[in-house]
Amino acid sequence: MKRSIIALATGVILLGWLTSCDKLDEPYAVIKNTNDTTVTAQKTVLLEDYTGHKCVNCPDAAITAHTLEKSLKGRLIVMAVHAGFFAEPASTGDFTADYTTGTGDEWNSYFTITANPNGLVNRTAYNGALVVGPDNWANAVNAQLALDAEATVDISNEYTEATRNLEITVDTKFLEALSGAYTLTVCITEDSLISPQKTNNSTTPIIYDYVFMDVLRGSVNGTWGEELTATVDPSQTYKKTYTVTLNQAWTAKNCHVVAFVSNAETKEIIQTGKEPVIAE
């Protein structure tokens, strides 16, 4: 990772708002737990907003993303990936803040994000295009939410302030016998970062106290995560635990853990979870 966010290794324990949206029908998967009681699982979608502080149209895209996120009440998770030309920090002047990461740079290159703002919705094509512009984010998200949940992702965090140690436990359960191998990627994001941002407003071309939200800080278990299973077994709960040291430059109360399950070959995301580092 370009800017080491954590001391990490993989294993069981590792030392590591304006687009409106119509009300959606709720597609739920119904499963039984070991006590034979009914449990419902809903699909949660990941929107990766590829952005940068020198991108003049990115503030409007962020408003679109967060309005959509708010309207969907937990069924959409937004992750702001600062990568590419418009995210590069300057050595002097207004734009010295560096929100880029090695992980974000690799994703940006792999998915061929050539302009900002743009996004990925569950890393799945919408109308034949993998990279989706803000005008189509709501439609792409709705298309994903119309699908049944195929897995559940439950995240539990234990943070020790004195040592800044964070123990992350992610339980994944598949709801059907999917074909192919699946991976788990665990990331940390941070809210309320304040620094200048360019805009397309001629009156206010730079917002000097812009508040950046959902900023990707990096991956706990590698750019593409780690394999959960090569053969899906719906009867199993796949548990992964990581212990990391939170970067001293980050504000723990503003950080979240975002975890998502992907098809190892296609990179398509089937389920995502998010939990604060410090329970609210």
Q: Care to describe what's here?
A:
With 280 residues, the protein is mainly beta. The protein has a single domain (33-276), classed as Immunoglobulins (Immunoglobulin-like, Sandwich), CATH 2.60.40.10. 12% of the residues lie in helices and 38% in strands. It has 3 helices and 15 strands. It has helices at residues 58-72, 102-110, 137-145, and strands spanning 28-32, 38-42, 45-51, 76-82, 118-121, 151-160, 165-174, 182-190, 193-198, 206-212, 215-219, 226-229, 237-245, 255-263, 269-276. The strands form 5 sheets. Strands 8, 11, 12, 14 and 15 form a 5-stranded antiparallel sheet that branches. A 3-stranded mixed sheet has the order 4-3-5. Strand 9 and strand 10 (206-212) form a beta hairpin. The protein is globular, with a radius of gyration of 18 Å. The relative contact order is 0.21. Residues 1-38 have low confidence and may be disordered.
